[in-house]
Amino acid sequence: MPEDNWLVDIADVDVGGDYHRVIIGGIPIPKGLSAFEMRHLITSEFDTLRSLMIAPPMGHEDMCANLTFPSTTSEAPFGQVIMECMGYPYFSGSNTAATLFALMEAGMLPKSEGSNKITHEVPAGLIQATATVRSDVIEEMIVEGDASYVINPKIRLALPDHGKVDVALVWSGALFVTVDAEQFGLEINTADLAKMKTIGLAICEAIEPDFDATHPVLGPLEAPKFVNFLGPITQAGSDKFESAGAIYGHPNTIFRCPTGTGTAARMAYELDKGTMQANDQLTNTSPIGTKFVGHGLGLTEKAGVPMLRVNISSRPYALMRTQMNVDFQNPSLSRFSNLRRFGH
Asked: At 179, is the secondary structure helix, strand, or coil?
């Protein structure tokens, strides 16, 4: 591979209305790193890889990107690092669904008629997924991510223009500030997206200065860069619920899909409130009307902390399979030049 030129194999995948870019080849990969360690390397030294994928001239900030590489564990064929506008979640339901879909369509993972069980490595650890194939079409991807729980059910923040508001802090493989949209007179629709961005930014800025939280396995957590705006929730059956929600990603994105981690966080939040039980189902709807279905799989425990297991069902769609030419001698790409060292 020429040091001054990458020819990157890219698959762009639509999950829930959001565009997920999956790097499936063409980049020199550092050897012997777990997904957790790869995330640390990229965040500390090579954040330019994220910018290359989701910033102009190659992308835009509302996209997500995913680096795939051979897993260091014998239990999973591949590992993944997730790169978004806000940074690097330890897990993402839609990104993982998109990545597994891309690997299967590229022939890098088995794609058999019927049910395909997959073990996959993300920075949060090993996760389980099931892809359902009918007539050679991947019709459903079900992903069980990191277990979810409420870290703090009530934090009071002082926001400019809004005074004091109450929020909750919830972990679901990513860290969410969870807030009732009605506190701000918001509805979960496209008309209120601009207001959500403004309020989401204010919430993230208000919580960051004194932030201190630790995951029992992953250790100290970075200040949250996601805000989960909760719309109404209604009961649709003995163990079925329906809700609406919108996810803000710092600094200026409202995701088009409900997000897998956002749906799981909502379920953990409602479980903590007593609205839902640990084996209930939630159909969560985004501002544009796309839906993810979360299935509660009962309680588990990590380092003595009770958590909720959830899997998320979605339908990925192929958008584009292409090659990205990254010529490091191109003056327009000079800000990415430190990537020459990536993998060496």
From this structure: strand
**Alpha-helix residue ranges (DSSP H) falling in 188-259:** 193-207
pLDDT averaged over 10-residue windows placed end to end, the chain, 344 residues: 83 98 96 97 97 93 96 97 97 98 98 98 97 98 97 96 95 97 96 97 96 95 97 96 98 97 98 98 98 98 97 98 95 94 89
3-state secondary structure of 57: coil
Helices (H) and strands (E) in the chain, counts: 5, 19
Could you check whether the bond before residue 153 is cis, i.e. omega within 30 degrees of 0? Answer: no
Angle ∠(12,94,234) on CA atoms, nearest 5: 140
Q: Is 280 helix (H, G, I), strand (E, B) or coil?
A: coil
Tokens of 92: 């993402």
Task: Print burial letters for 58-94: b (CB count within 10 Å at least 16), e (below 16).
Answer: bbeebbbbbbbbebbeeebbbbbbbbbbbbbbbbbbb
Distance CA 33, CA 131 (A): 26
Rounded CA-CA distance 226/250 in Å is 6
| Contacts of 333 by beta carbon, 8 Å cutoff, 6+ apart | 52, 57, 326, 327
Q: Calculate the alpha carbon distances from 44 to 38, 79, 126, 206, 221 in Å.
A: 10, 19, 23, 25, 15
Provide the 10 A C-beta neighbour count for residue 8: 18
Q: What is the pTM of this model?
A: 0.96
Q: What would the two tokens of residue 264 be?
A: 């799981």
Amino acid identity, residue 143? V
